[in-house]
Amino acid sequence: MDIELKHIRYFLAVANELSFSRAAEQLYVSQPSLTRAVAAMEQIMSVQLMRRTTRKVELTHEGEHIKAELERFLRDLDNILAYSSASPVLRVGFNWVLPDVWAQQAISMFERGTKMQVKLVRHDAPHAGLGSGDADIAVKRGEARIPRMRTVTLFREHRVAAMRSDSPLARRPCIHWEEIANCPLVVNAVSGTAEPGQWRPGRQPYIAARCGNFDEWLETVALGRGVGITTAAVARRVVHPAVRFVRVEGAPLVPVYLAYPQQGTHPLVRRFIRAAQEAAAALREAAQGKGTA
After folding, report:
1. What is the mean pLDDT of the chain?
2. What distance in Å separates the CA atoms of residue 252 and residue 233, rounded to the nearest whole number?
3. Rounded CA gap, 223 and 105, in Å?
4. Which of 80, 88, 251, 266 has the fewest CB atoms nearer than 10 Å to its CB?
5. pTM of the model
6. Which structural domains are found in the chain, ordered by start?
């Protein structure tokens, strides 16, 4: 009996999850199939890869070494296969307004360096097209909590408050984060970055409306249902006759990061990450230069 690619993928799934049940759910196979695959590898290689008890699964020293080697092998194989069948574009998913300047610079740098085109894919879903396979990499905001995805934080954005233009608060140049606790909150429940739990206990705004995407969120704010919290990029890019954006002081910054699959990664994702990091570094240097000028 020879080791098949299926055995390797099954072993790596169990090794990453340290659970046969969770790995079986992830791969949509039965636990006995995973058990047989790992046992077959151990028999063929004449080495114990895992210690299994009724309570836990852990890798042996040999299992840790083989896991690292097989992950490297699988990445190389995925890249080879992807190069032979890759689409002529890199699909970059996003939920709502991309960070201005950075997006243009990162995409331009990537396209110049690879001669491959970026296709932007908007998805009104938490994973911005990654979960459904519609995106190869995604630009996300907020806390990086995406199962089975790798993430790379690029920079952080300032927050602004969005409100109906005839609101008394809309006439002010800025509003403090703690003041928003007195306001009804309009939340983008799918891909937004503001939730009442970000304010101090006992000083949290109540949610007046939950929306399923950015456009619903913007129009709900325009109706005067409450205050929305977003990033400064939106204030620079979005114009709505019934909405005004006001700077927020004392607010936690919003992380902007890239997310991509742990396995089956598009061969040029890492090139896009490098371009994204270089563009982010250039913007930071420009901002520091302005600060010292």
Report:
1. 88
2. 15
3. 35
4. 88
5. 0.68
6. 5-85 (1.10.10.10), 89-155+255-292 (3.40.190.10), 159-251 (3.40.190.10)
